[in-house]
Write a structure and sequence with these properties.
The protein is of the alpha+beta class. About 40% of the residues lie in helices and about 10% in strands. Bound molecules: flavin mononucleotide (FMN).
Length: about 260
């Protein structure tokens, strides 16, 4: 494989959840955000909120960014040009989520290049109303994901990823046989077990319903964890649609403007 400083930085990525007391300078914050802005975009359909309230921020991080999908700002531009938005909100959200995610990951990498560690927090859409109140968000600005950032006070190893064979499919999507699936699962599970990741984080997800617990931290790993997440959580889109509609996005009804 080829290597250089950019590739090394990307391959050395790990989420950081413990931070030192050092405050990142305004210049560091500005650099990270500028690098984020320069990501490719469909419509720059995002805004970024920042909290330096480390007492309240998750993991007492010195910086907490909230990445929002922002239709409001764009509609102001359209109004200046005497246009109205007619595109449906689901399509806009798809593009907005991509714009916002690309920006956010640029920030992660830029931060890392300046010695800053970070970790995403995915719960924001489910607390969108609370976040909207806190930051006085106008309607049609939706909190997508949060990014805690600061100087690392831990140095975990990079986490495993699927094998290339389970990721890159050239020309044709293959029939994924049991062996390929099992190999991919093994790579992930053995990788996390070797780091004792879930025991250290005490992060086993409790089983709901009739399933009986048979795992200990000796064999509980990523594939079981991810199955428990997506096999138990958020079975209905109702809560998310409610949050989106509270922020003025129309998902179930036709957009009429
Ligand atoms: C959209 C998104 C949401 C995430 N939410 C959380 C979260 O709520 N809590 C957390 O500890 N980590 C969260 N993470 C971090 C992932 O757990 C982490 O990226 C993944 O386990 C891979 O580990 P690595 O980043 O160290 O390579 C999130 C990551 C993404 C991309």
């Amino acid at each position: 494989m080829k290597t250089n400083l950019v590739i090394e930085t990307l391959l050395d990525h790990r989420s950081i959840r413990k931070f030192t007391d050092e405050e990142p300078s305004d210049e560091a914050v500005e650099t990270v955000v500028r690098a984020g802005q320069q990501a490719p975009f469909a419509s720059q359909y995002y805004s970024l909120l920042l909290s330096r309230n480390r007492k309240r921020n998750p993991w007492k991080a010195p910086l907490l960014f909230t990445v929002c999908v922002d239709s409001h700002k764009f509609e102001l531009i359209m109004a200046e040009r005497n246009w109205k938005l007619v595109a449906n909100d689901l399509s806009l959200l798809f593009f907005g989520i991509q714009d916002a995610s690309l920006m956010a990951e640029n920030m992660v990498v830029a931060g890392r290049s300046l010695g800053l560690g970070s970790c995403f927090l995915g719960g924001a859409p489910y607390r969108a109303d609370k976040i909207a109140e806190e930051y006085r968000l106008p309607k049609r600005v939706f909190p997508l994901v949060q990014l805690a950032m600061g100087y690392p006070a831990e140095d975990p190893p990079p986490r495993p990823r699927y094998p290339m064979k389970f990721t890159l499919f050239e020309d044709k999507y293959p029939k994924l046989d049991k062996k390929t699936v099992k190999n991919a699962m093994r790579a992930m599970d053995e990788g996390y077990l070797a780091q004792d990741y879930y025991r250290k984080a005490q992060a086993k997800i409790r089983l709901e319903g009739k399933r009986r617990e048979t795992f200990t931290y000796d064999d509980y790993s990523w594939t079981e964890h991810i199955c428990r997440k997506w096999g138990q959580w958020y079975p209905s889109p109702k809560e998310l649609i409610e949050q989106l509609e509270k922020q003025g996005f129309r998902i179930t009804k036709q957009t009429k403007r």
